[in-house]
Amino acid sequence: MASQQELVEQLNNFRIEVSKLKNSLNELDREKESWFRKKEEFSAKIRESIQKINGSKSKRDALTSEVKGLKPKRDSINKEVSAKLKEFDKLKKEKAGLAKSIGIKESPSRIKSQMEKLEFRIETDTPSFEKEKELMKKIK
Question: Quick one: angle between helices 108-124 and 129-139, nearest 10?
């Protein structure tokens, strides 16, 4: 059996070893807590990102449904525009045909402006009677 001195020495060695193990355990505990805090921070960031994504998804879905609702309106308006354009082209061809059959070479708006110029000229100038007759004939 060991002597009392050896037992005290062994006890001291065990105490030192227990103290070292306790310090090591405390250090590992601090490290564990540090990693846990980091994990919690990342979890919070992930939750925040998920909430933003869900918000964006709901906005996107709302906009998509709005677009789906507007597409039929757009299509009907496009059909109307197409029909009006066809009618316009038809009228344009008809106008050209009538102008050709009557023998009009110039556009009506240009003829109107020429008439207004001639009338203005008659009103402001004092042309001779023959000249005025000629201008009036041209206007007719």
Answer: 160
Q: Given CA atoms 127, 133, 134, 138 in this order, what sign does their dihedral have?
A: positive
CA–CA separation, 10 vs 93, rounded Å? Answer: 118
Do residues 32 and 86 both lie within one domain? yes
Q: Are residues 84 and 123 in the same domain?
A: no
The range of the structural domain enclosing residue 125 comes to: 106-140
Question: Is-above-0.85 flag for pTM?
Answer: no
* Structure token pair of residue 58: 């709901």
Same domain membership, residue 121 and residue 57: no
> By the 8 A CB rule, do 132 and 122 touch?
yes
pLDDT over 90 (residue 78): yes
Q: Are 135 and 121 in contact (CB under 8 A)?
A: yes
